[in-house]
């Protein structure tokens, strides 16, 4: 028996099925998700429209919406967006963090995404996790520019305990002479608390989406004829019986639909999957429709409902002849771009094009990312060099100045390139497509090795001695990565030399981890890892890094650091920074002959014994509530311990500065 959720007496399961004479009221929901700044069908990185077989953008979405409004009547069409709108293209970067942001914050310029949504006539939106990337002030400015309410029921003000955004909205419509109320509740994946911790920690709390839906759906249902949940969360696969409310599950749209009675339609997103229609049954035995449109406005879900009288209001008709249907409308279906929406954002678009066309440096040769996922390339090491330079300079004069700085980078794009000759902001933005910021954390040699072993799971195991196949040898599939480990979840490190043997089992692939001068890396040596905020906050579940002491965090955006570095030097020459420091192989290395390691006193270390190799740390890393955002510099225990570790390593003569490997 379903628990009592305080539902109205008249529910779909308690009502008599309609007969052939029943009058039905048509209602259409049009929904987008994960637009990520794609208003026009324009690739700012290629300075051209997207290919014809991949047409996209809100300008095409607008055409589909206009067609449905003309066919069914504007009053019977409700338009919704499911979040992640204001991050993802140079357009949104320019007005979110670039030169256009101050004008948006000062209310001198309307945010171009708000302009586009308002021109189309959206009725409600929910915050996505990327809405927080540019800070709460920018988010507030965007929200003020929107005509539609921006929802987020599970986002709570840490100081007051009250919802930070509007939890829900009620949309009133007159359809066929009848008054119909559509209630829309908004929920966002609670992963924001991790991914944008530096922005929201101590300010906002993100509650479990199922728990929040259980609280608010009855409130909405009591006032509405139709209940829609905008859930910026992936569908999820966890059985309801095993759902852990304390885990703040990232992907839970299906759990919301099945565990919380009273919902008619759930709009999912976040996972960037194209899943137009799924019908599930909730705990009360009622059907619920889930739709997830394609990302980047590649499609809009057209959800056609029929409503029938139910007491003093209406309910969704689930009889065979009138059950809800979803028609995904794709940009490739011949939809033309809406000139009205294109004209509305034309000035912002032209400003963005001029911005990305700005020259910043000259490259001495063409640099490509095409092979960066399986071989060391200068263009990826360029990212590592800029990050390491930035952190290295910031640590000068601190107790961490003597530590070697290593740097992580991922092959975000397989098509990015620096042409020989003029390099523009467009070229740099195409290389680094995310608005990540830079941090520095302290890791030991053993932890660096663990980090690299985890990264090496990206490769498909290849028979020993066989030729590695780049087409099929990457993006390995695991239960936690059924679609394959994505390129952005694979890291290479600069500042240390190592080999990845893809013929070996997981956890045994990284070998010959050394300093640039050939000195083996010791387990207890300390390093500073220059790392982006997504990875440092736990993105892709790399070991150690989320718990590691933070010694640098100036909140500088990495893409802008690349632009500044290139602008200051004027020339990008691989000879200045690139040395091949990692290789991929299928040939196991021969066991090295142990050599004496100098001790702090300069004496050789004792001969190896049969004592067991030290294992992982015996103590558990601190939990999130124990971790301090920065390593103290006031002589506290953590700082003293770090400095002591530095002293031991320095005495061993093992510190090799990163600059020593540069060919300048």
TrEMBL record:
Region (Disordered): 1-22, 584-636
Gene Ontology cellular-component terms listed: outer membrane-bounded periplasmic space
Pfam family, one: 5_nucleotid_C
Record GO terms (molecular function): hydrolase activity, acting on ester bonds; metal ion binding; nucleotide binding
Pro residues biased stretches: 591-615
A Gene Ontology BP annotation from the UniProt entry: nucleotide catabolic process
Organism for this UniProt entry: Microbacterium betulae
InterPro entries reported for this sequence: 5'-Nucleotdase_C, 5'-Nucleotdase_C_sf, 5'-Nucleotdase_CS, 5_nucleotidase/apyrase, Calcineurin-like_PHP, Metallo-depent_PP-like
Lineage start: Bacteria, Bacillati, Actinomycetota, Actinomycetes, Micrococcales
Membrane-spanning intervals of the chain: 638-657
Feature: compositional bias, Low complexity: 8-19
Domain Calcineurin-like phosphoesterase: start-end pairs: 28-273
Family: Belongs to the 5'-nucleotidase family.
Compositional bias segments (type: Basic and acidic residues): 617-628
Keywords: Hydrolase, Membrane, Nucleotide-binding, Signal, Transmembrane, Transmembrane helix
Domain 5'-Nucleotidase C-terminal, first and last residues per copy: 360-546
Name of protein: 5'-nucleotidase C-terminal domain-containing protein
């Amino acid at each position: 028996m379903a628990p009592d959720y305080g539902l109205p007496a008249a529910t779909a399961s308690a009502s008599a099925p309609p007969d052939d004479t029943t009058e039905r009221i048509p209602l259409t929901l049009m929904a987008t998700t994960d637009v990520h700044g794609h208003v026009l069908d324009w690739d700012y990185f290629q300075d051209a429209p997207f290919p014809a077989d991949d047409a996209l953008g809100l300008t095409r979405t607008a055409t589909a919406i206009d067609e449905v409004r003309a066919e069914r009547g504007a009053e019977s069409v409700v338009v919704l967006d499911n979040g992640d709108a204001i991050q993802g293209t140079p357009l949104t970067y320019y007005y979110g963090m670039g030169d256009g942001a101050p004008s948006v914050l000062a209310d001198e310029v309307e945010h171009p995404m708000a302009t586009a949504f308002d021109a189309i006539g959206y009725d409600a939106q929910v915050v996505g996790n990327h809405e927080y990337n540019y800070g709460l002030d920018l988010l507030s400015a965007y929200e003020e520019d929107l005509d539609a309410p921006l929802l987020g029921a599970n986002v709570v003000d840490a100081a007051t305990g009250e919802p930070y955004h509007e939890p829900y909205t009620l949309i009133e419509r007159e359809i066929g002479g009848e008054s119909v109320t559509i209630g829309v509740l908004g929920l966002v994946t609670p992963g924001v608390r991790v991914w944008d911790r530096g922005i929201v920690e101590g300010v906002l709390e993100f509650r479990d989406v199922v728990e929040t839906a259980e609280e608010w759906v009855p409130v909405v249902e009591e006032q509405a004829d139709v209940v829609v949940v905008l859930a910026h969360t992936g569908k999820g696969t966890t059985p309801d019986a095993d759902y852990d409310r304390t885990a703040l599950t990232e992907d839970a749209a299906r759990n919301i639909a099945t565990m919380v009675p009273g919902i008619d339609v759930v709009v999912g997103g976040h996972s960037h999957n194209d899943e137009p229609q799924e019908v599930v049954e909730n705990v009360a035995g009622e059907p619920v429709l889930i739709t997830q449109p394609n990302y980047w406005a590649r499609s809009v879900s057209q959800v056609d409902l029929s409503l029938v009288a139910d007491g003093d209001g209406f309910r969704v008709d689930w009889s065979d002849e009138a059950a809800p249907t979803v028609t995904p409308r794709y940009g490739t279906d011949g939809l033309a771009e809406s000139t009205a929406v294109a004209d509305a954002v034309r000035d912002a678009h032209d400003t963005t094009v001029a911005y990305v066309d700005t020259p910043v440096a000259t490259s001495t040769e063409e640099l490509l990312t095409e092979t960066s996922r399986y071989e060391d390339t200068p263009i990826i090491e360029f990212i590592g060099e800029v990050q390491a330079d930035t952190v290295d300079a910031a640590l000068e004069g601190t107790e961490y100045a003597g530590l070697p700085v290593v740097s992580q980078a991922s092959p975000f794009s397989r098509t990015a390139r620096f042409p020989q000759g003029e390099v523009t902001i467009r070229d740099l933005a195409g290389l680094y497509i995310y608005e990540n910021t830079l941090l520095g954390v302290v890791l030991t040699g053993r932890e660096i090795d663990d980090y690299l072993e985890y990264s090496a799971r990206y490769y498909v195991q290849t028979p020993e001695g066989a030729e590695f196949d780049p087409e099929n040898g990457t993006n390995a599939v695991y239960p936690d990565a059924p679609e394959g480990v994505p390129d952005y979840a694979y890291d290479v490190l600069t500042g240390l030399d190592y080999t990845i043997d893809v013929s070996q089992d997981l956890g045994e692939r990284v070998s010959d981890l050394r300093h640039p001068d050939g000195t083996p890396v010791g387990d207890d040596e300390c390093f500073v890892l220059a790392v982006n905020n997504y990875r440092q906050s736990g993105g892709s579940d790399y070991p150690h890094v989320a718990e590691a002491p933070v010694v640098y965090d100036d909140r500088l955006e990495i893409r802008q650091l690349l632009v500044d570095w290139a602008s200051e030097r004027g020339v990008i020459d691989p000879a200045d920074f690139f040395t091949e420091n990692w290789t991929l192989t299928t040939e196991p290395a021969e066991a090295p002959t142990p050599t004496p390691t100098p001790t702090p006193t300069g004496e050789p270390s004792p001969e190896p014994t049969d004592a067991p190799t030290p294992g992982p740390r015996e103590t558990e890393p601190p939990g999130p509530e124990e971790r301090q955002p920065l390593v103290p510099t006031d002589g506290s225990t953590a700082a003293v311990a770090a400095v002591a570790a530095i002293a031991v390593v320095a005495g061993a003569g093992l510190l090799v500065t990163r600059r020593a490997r540069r060919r300048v």
